[in-house]
Design brief:
Order of helices and strands: HHEEEEEEEEEEEEEEEHEEEEEEEEEHEE
Mean pLDDT: 82
Radius of gyration: 32 Å
Strand content: 35-45%
Largest sheet: 6 strands, mixed
Distance between the termini: 85 Å
Number of strands: 26
Length: about 375
């Protein structure tokens, strides 16, 4: 018999019986939301089911404080803050096996990923019920696609040209309009290039929603990204592709450099490293290849390093001014402050170069650690 049943019976017993019975268990008032357990063994889970009258089931672990009811809701795409439809099941009605089961009557669409939450709840008597932790499961609605042509998915989140905080989470969501379950995986493709000439990520996934930590995902502040989703039935053919959307990574607590319409331009005169700071001690995070050009968005105090938006990876980095040609007026270019470079150690000490070994200007200029000194004579190569 449940604890609450015992307590209810205790209140109805005659005083003489109360003298005979042992003390009753904790009163309902002692049950709090912190005592509620997380339901487990949720079904369906990663299964394909018909879209009508889906049977949801779960188990509730043994507890010293049983709930009054369970509440479940089902959705596709991003979870709504306030579910339009929820279903309740009284705790007093388990199945013969001891699990709990309800039939989700609102019809679901075929060929979709669905999620469902279930939580235990307590009635407070004040009109404001409380809920314990929510357990999550997901499933797919059939029928499974056969040989019919796949349709491109419709992207949903992040919205086109949205701004994303690179220190938070990022969630990719799309809707598959094909009226059946794709017999294969989707692939999320993310790139810094609109033509996807290279990729930051290619993520195969069966669901139509993917959430990850943006910092671990590799999003750089002040950088534009492009994304699309490829439908890949059985992996036997490429596509079809969704439309291409973009988002901009921007930390709300940081200011991104901007370029004016007549901003100065840096043109690489040789293949250069584009570094995380204005010194050889900073790591190289991109390349600035000979002939490429990029807007100058900042400079260091000495104005011998330029802060650019790299044309290859579209990230902000620093190039040495001795190897670039500058076009335009740099008078309005602001000094950009960066953290000090890492202290040299045995493992990160830059390679020492004796520039005096270069006897001509072209070979001297080819090494960023060297500079050609002009004299009345032919000149000589010296360390920077």
């Amino acid at each position: 018999m449940k604890i609450r049943d015992i307590l209810s019976g205790c209140r109805l017993l005659l005083p003489v019986l109360l003298l005979i019975l042992p003390a009753c268990g904790p009163s309902p008032a002692s049950c709090t939301v912190d005592d509620l357990q997380l339901p487990d063994n949720l079904h369906p889970h990663e299964e394909t089911v018909p879209p009508l009258d889906v049977s949801l089931s779960w188990h509730y672990p043994a507890s010293t404080c049983n709930p009054d009811f369970f509440e479940a809701h089902v959705w596709t795409g991003m979870e709504p803050a306030y579910p339009a439809v929820t279903e309740r099941l009284n705790f007093d009605f388990p199945t013969p096996s001891g699990d709990y089961q309800l039939t989700w009557n609102p019809p679901l669409e075929p060929g979709n990923t669905y999620f469902f939450h279930v939580s235990a709840g307590l009635g407070t008597g004040t009109g404001q019920d409380v809920h314990g932790p929510e357990a999550l499961s997901w499933f797919y609605t059939g029928p499974v696609c056969t040989a019919e042509t796949m349709q491109p998915v419709n992207l949903s989140n992040p919205a086109n040209e949205a701004t994303v905080d690179p220190s938070g989470d990022i969630t990719f969501v799309w809707d598959d309009p094909t009226p059946c379950l794709v017999n294969g995986l989707f692939e999320i493709q993310v790139s810094t290039h609109q033509d996807f000439s290279d990729y930051l990520h290619r993520i195969p996934i069966l669901q139509t929603l993917y959430t990850t930590d943006a910092s671990e995902f590799g999003l750089q502040n002040c950088t534009q990204y492009y994304w699309r989703v490829m439908t890949d039935p059985n992996g036997t053919q490429e596509g079809p592709y969704s439309s291409v959307w973009s988002f901009y990574a921007h930390d709300p607590d940081a200011k991104c450099p901007t370029s004016a319409p007549n901003a100065a331009i840096a043109i690489a005169q040789a293949d250069l490293n584009c570094r995380s700071g204005p010194d050889l001690l900073y790591e190289s995070i991109d390349s600035f290849l000979q002939g490429q050009s990029a807007p100058i968005l900042g400079r260091n105090e000495a104005a011998d390093w330029w802060y650019i938006l790299s044309p290859r990876l579209q990230i902000l980095c620093w190039v040495w001014g001795g190897k670039v040609q500058v076009q335009g007026d740099t008078g309005a270019v602001l000094v950009v402050q960066v953290a000090p470079p890492p202290q040299p150690t045995d493992t990160n000490m830059p390679q020492t170069v004796d520039c005096r070994g270069f006897t001509d200007k072209s070979s001297c200029d080819a090494n960023p650690a060297c500079t050609w000194a002009l004299t009345a004579g032919p000149g000589f190569c010296n360390n920077r």
